[in-house]
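Appendix B, record 7
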Amino acid sequence: MKTRARAGSGASHERRITTALFAAGLATFATMYSAQALLPSLSAAFGAAPAHAALAVSLTTGFLALAIIPVSALSSRIGRTRVMTASAVSSAVIGLLLPFSPSLEVLLTGRALQGLTLAGVPAVAMAYLAEEIGADGLGAAMGVYVAGTTIGGLAGRVVPAFTLGLASWRWAEATISVAAAVCTVWFVRGLPPSRGFDARPAGIRTVLRDLAAQLRHRGLLCLFALAFVLVGGFVSLYNFLGYRLTQPPFELPAAVAGLVFILYLAGTAASAAAGRLADRLGRHRILAASVATMGLGLFLTIPDNLVTLVLGIALCTAGFFGSHTVASAWVGAMANGNRGAASSLYLFAFYLGSAVIGGGGGIAYTHYGWTGLTLCVAVLLLIAAILVCALILHSRYTGPAQVADLGQPA
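Structure tokens (predicted):
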């Protein structure tokens, strides 16, 4: 009876964690991308050039990337739940103040501060799940968290866009900020105390030593590189998809073209499914299938046919988020020692790929159009396939502990 009680208590604990992290993903990514739909309105309201207004997005993601590793190190010292709670609450408070910004400069300062505070959730969530969730359920739990991030990213773009049809950018920002604050309350109230956390010193030497230990792990290096190339290709497609849809031969209205973000729901479904399937069939199989799905989707976007284009983008979205779910869980399972260091390096590579490749894809699109862009993304997917093969070979030949990561008996 006691054993059953403990098992039931453990299952309840894991459900609470999974639900709370889902809410955290919603709040964090809705906040992160909320300014993207507001950029034209900000230019009109403040008389700012598009590049100036776009800082409302880039400052947030840029400062988030800079803060990931320091925040992860801090969480190793004071606790994962403390850092995530402080991060979510502080970013929600800043968000509620942003609609009252008297100038664009004040708004940009607030968005930069949000980037710093937002870092606490994505930097810590993977390590927290790896410490608190059993190996058999880690993939599914990671899938639910990533699903929350996809819905949050979708809501952060769509909700302000719809609100702008009725009111100013201030009301649009207020709407998504209030929604993020509600999700933050849900997260803070539902997050249970940590059971698997062991405090570690967080001095500079310790942090550098932990990071160096993860960088010496060949399997983790493959996962870091995989995050860099996959997110870079994925972001490149979405960055310039709107241009293709609003230009010949499609020439869709901008409002209709903006509905393409609804395809993020394919990523939501794929995240949860990929996590469960990885636990059952093995991470290597689902990761390879997800990369292949992206490749098929990319091929379908080439013809000037709206149906195949939409289907292709949906497959690319599902494949990307499926890959991200599996790779995220695998980082936590494969890491030696400080899982937070490994997770922070993965996320650093993730956001770096988004910034560098996602922006650089514009060169290919400007000179060679959609065909040139898809060719560049195809090269990235080929690199990803090579990395998956290297990852599988590394895992097969580095001992029983790594074989278990493939979903096979240890």
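Remarks on this record: The first helix runs from residue 2 to 32. Residues 1-8, 399-410 have pLDDT under 50 and may be disordered.
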